[in-house]
Amino acid sequence: MTDAAGCLLAVAWRAEPPAAPAGWIAEPVLPDQTALDRAGSKGRTPPPFHTLLWAAAPAAGSLTLPADLAPAVERWAGFRFSSRPAWDDTDPDGVEPSVKQVSFLHARTDLAPGAFARHYREHVALARVHHPAICRYAQHDVVETVGDAGLDTQGISELWFADEATLVARYFAGPDSVPVVRADNREYIDFAGTLSLLVRPSDAR
Q1: Is residue 3 within 8 Å of residue 173, measured between CB atoms?
Q2: pLDDT tens digit string along 151-194?
Q3: Burial, 150: exposed, middle or buried (Cβ in 10 Å; 0-12, 13-18, 19+)?
Q4: Taking a C-beta distance cutoff of 8 angstroms, is the pair 172, 185 a contact?
Q5: Labelling 197: which of 42, 51, 60, 140 has CA 20 to 30 A away?
Q6: Is the full-model pTM beyond 0.85?
Q7: Rounded CA separation 55/80 (Å)
Q8: CA 182, 185, 189: angle at the middle one, nearest 5?
Q9: Which alpha helices (DSSP H) does the chain contain, by range?
């Protein structure tokens, strides 16, 4: 499958958020991120951003904050990426995901060129076994980062779940999955620079 291009803005508001600009889809970040902690991962409450904005990547030009958003924005980070879907079980299972984890992955700085991308792709097979609650999974390779929020991100993962209860109960397949997943992640991810957020997904995407 050919990679799709896209871009993402992570936004913290200083004022009442305006409507999403034309061409952008808004997904609100959940104020309470503790479901990730209960699942055995790591959440940040309160979260550092309030909204994620997604769009197809512009044909040309650099990624910038839309002018009509700027007066309401406290801080932001922008990413241009290429996408590759991993799996989608929502249609066969009749699942309508109501929560999504978006992870901004910071690569280990000691990796050889190309190692992060290779480990990231190989992680899909492991996640399929050890994260049974994920009903849809997509990976995005970041090709440009801008903004003032200081997120040094090489990959963005989208993990959809039916609901928060399912996320908490079945985030890992069992106790034995936890060390397996974490050992694999440590091969290519710097956890200190990585951020995961729970959001309310938009069907418009």
Answers
A1: no
A2: 999 999 999 999 999 999 999 999 999 999 999 999 999 999 99
A3: exposed
A4: no
A5: 60
A6: yes
A7: 10
A8: 135
A9: 34-39, 90-93, 115-130, 164-170, 177-186
Residue 7 to residue 68: CA distance in whole angstroms: 17
**Structure token pair of residue 68:** 């009509």
For residue 201, give the nearest of 53, 6, 28 by alpha carbon: 28
How far is it, in rounded angstroms, from Cα 27 to Cα 81?
18
Two tokens, residue 24: 């952008």
- Kindly tell me the number of DSSP H helices and DSSP E strands found in the chain: 5, 8
41 by DSSP, 3-state: which?
coil
Choose among 105, 93, 192: nearest CA to 153: 105
Identity at 99, one-letter amino acid code:
V
| Rg for the chain, CA atoms, rounded | 16
Tell me how far CA of residue 167 lies from CA of 30, 109, 174, in angstroms: 14, 31, 13
* Residue 59 binned pLDDT confidence (cut-offs 50, 70, 90): low
Residues linked to residue 100 through DSSP beta bridges, in sequence order: 160, 199
Q: Alpha carbon of 190 to those of 27, 114, 169, 202: distances in Å?
A: 26, 16, 26, 29
Q: Which residues partner with 99 through β-bridges?
A: 161
Q: How far is CA 140 from the centre of its chain?
A: 9
Say if residues 178 and 2 touch (Cβ distance below 8 Å). Answer: no
Tabulate helix, strand, coil % of the chain (nearest 5): 25, 35, 40
